Amino acid sequence: MSTEPLAGGPPLEPVPELSAAIARLRLVDHHVHGATPHDLSRREFEELITESDRPVPEWMTQFESQVGYAILRHCAPVLGLDPHCSPAEYLARRARLGAEEVNRRLLGAAGIGHYLIETGYRGEEILGPSGMAELTGVPADEVVRLESVAEQVAASGCGAAAFAGRFAETLWERTRTARGLKTIVAYRYGLDFDPAPPSKEEVAEAAGRWMAGGGRVSDPVLLRHLIWTGIERGLPLQFHIGYGDPDVDLRRSDPLLLRGLIELAEPSGVPLLLLHCYPYHRQAGFLAQVYPNVYFDVGLGVNYTGARSTAVVAESLELAPFAKILFSSDAWGPAELHHLGAELWRRAMSRVLGGFVAEGEWPAERALRVAEMVGAENARRVYGLGVEA
């Protein structure tokens, strides 16, 4: 493995024994979506390897990006091709193998020991927890999106005055076997909301406005209510932070805006998990350091920074206690994203931690201990998954 300097830093020196141990880890992907079971055209594939929701312009290709180059480097060999093959060769091989075999190979090579699958986004187009478990042969549990439950309650014909009670009842029923909850308040409003729980009267009034107008839930009063009902439910609560599709206002997705909520929620003991966080991963690391109820990952940022993901992972290790950092891929759709999430994370951890060992800053056994914590043990503790069988 070649060395790679971080910006402004010395070359990284991987330690072969440490790299081999990290390669063998069975990771817990604590925030991920299902793989697509369908064959994909080139246009469909390219539109699924970007966070843009716009059509790919005819004069460019998404393969000419960090994530595109990473697919051709790291996924091509898993499908029986040479690294750095052409996009046409890659897609032709993918089509010949078919979606089921592509998924089997890429997911199998990822080395995941447990999936926590968030089902609230276009779930009918991808494999659910049972489908992912059947395909991979490893456990796959559900993370339930609060906003999806609220919209299901509204669609059932619930009146405004009854909304709060019906939502709480439905959430408890919907999460009987779930491992966690998620909110996309960053998409629907922003993180700069009043952190205090709204009153019953405020919730009923806001529910009336929403139900009269229809559409998705985006009223800040209702979103606050969903979050606080989720906290009362007691399961770990995930927040989308930072980078995402154009539906998110990146300026209003800085996790520092959640400080008021974090402090109000702290007595509950409910873990708050900040997802992805790029480019605000250093802010997330600060919050995870100073608040015992805050955890974070750099999942989505790893895939889309590709060859530069080593720097992102290194920055995630700067401030936070290592017991507060988790691994995720946030993959949705093409199994390439599931595979890359794990492959690029292992590569980055091997280089960053190996550099610490080579420089004499850390002993090798402690470096491996950190990789084990971030890769799986922290998620097993936070979500109550127990020890891997």
From TrEMBL:
Molecular function GO labels: hydrolase activity
Coiled-coil ranges from the UniProt annotation: none
Pfam family, one: Amidohydro_2
Source taxon at top rank: Bacteria
Domain Amidohydrolase-related: 163-385
Annotated InterPro entries: Amidohydro-rel (IPR006680), Metal_Hydrolase (IPR032466)
Protein name, entry field: Amidohydrolase-related domain-containing protein
Native source species: Nonomuraea pusilla
